[in-house]
Amino acid sequence: MSDAAKRRTGHVLVAADKFKGSLTAVEVAAHVTAGLHQVAPEVTVASLPVADGGDGTVDAAVAGGFERRTLRVTGPLGEPVEAAYALREDTAVVEMAEASGLRHLPPGVFAPLTATTYGTGELLRAALDAGARTLVLGVGGSATTDGGAGMLSALGARLLDAEGVPVAPGGAALAALATADLSTLDPRLAAAEIVLASDVDNPLRGPKGAAAVYGPQKGASAEEVALLDGALGQYAAVLGAALGGAALAAVDAPGAGAAGGIGYGALVGLGASFRPGIDVFLDVLGFAAALERADLVITGEGSLDAQTLHGKAPVGVAAAAGARGVPVVAVCGRLALSPAELAGAGISRAYALAELEPDPARSMAQAGPLLERVAVRLASEVLGRP
């Protein structure tokens, strides 16, 4: 940034994602603001916490002006859990991890074969009950690999085995699926706009599919991955027989494999459209309006690495800001991108907590104070303050 640009910087927009495991997106913005104001109290700092559809999406929506609605739904293990969605007028943001995420599993406990997305369907139904007509389904952080079958069941679909009995919860049970009747889905879905917001574009099946890529993260062994992949194949075949060739073709659609295949259930069963999560939420949260007065955008997330370059929040923020000619810098816990990679993503420079505290455990434990120190340095070097 030139010296002239530094002198002009009077409005800063902090649009960062969470630092997973240490700080929420709201907390990131607060600590950055505190650090900037230590050395540049005259600078106006606005915050717009962002998310890409995974953990923290509802929190970001609430910080952006949505109302939090909390209820009890079915958790991934079938037990009741408390979950929330966000509502503003007739738009609802539903985060599947709120109902069906790994966060609801006890430490060290996984259920790759039986975990269900039923609670996510209950959240969608609650949003419809509240008057939502645009449903943004953010997916990520799931404990499930059931292809969204639980979600569809909660919304009225009938998924039956050869005896006409509803199949059991979870992905493994889909191997016994014989017939599917989606004519019984909640009729309000047909009149709603449903957006599948995800930062991954995996297909449903195969070596890059839901079970193979993400099953091991949910505790699936190699044998269980193969079982789940086959069960998802049976699920797609039955839905294809019920809905036609488009349902079969959607197996390879971008996002079908997102969050244990819930993307496939949303695309095929709910008629959802797929969009990169960060693009959706920048629109929903009003990023364009927030950007209008900004001279500088500060984005970031816990780890800026190769995954960041594939649709994560900081790259989406940088692209949108760059299109308006607003410079972007980033803060992070760990930096694993070269200056050239950062520049290619539209980020002029990144400041990492690891530069101050190289021990990861201590860095995460002290993330707030460290981030304020990073922001002080950023203010000095980017804003030109002493």
Automatic annotation (TrEMBL):
Keywords for the protein's UniProt record, in alphabetical order: Kinase, Transferase
A GO molecular-function annotation: glycerate kinase activity
InterPro entries to which the protein is assigned, alphabetical: Glyc_kinase_flavodox-like_fold, Glycerate_kinase, Glycerate_kinase_RE-like, Glycerate_kinase_sf
Signal peptide, first to last residue: none
Gene Ontology BP term (one): organic acid phosphorylation
Pfam families: Gly_kinase
Superkingdom to which the source organism belongs: Bacteria
PANTHER family: GLYCERATE KINASE
Similarity-based family: Belongs to the glycerate kinase type-1 family.
Protein name, per record: Glycerate kinase
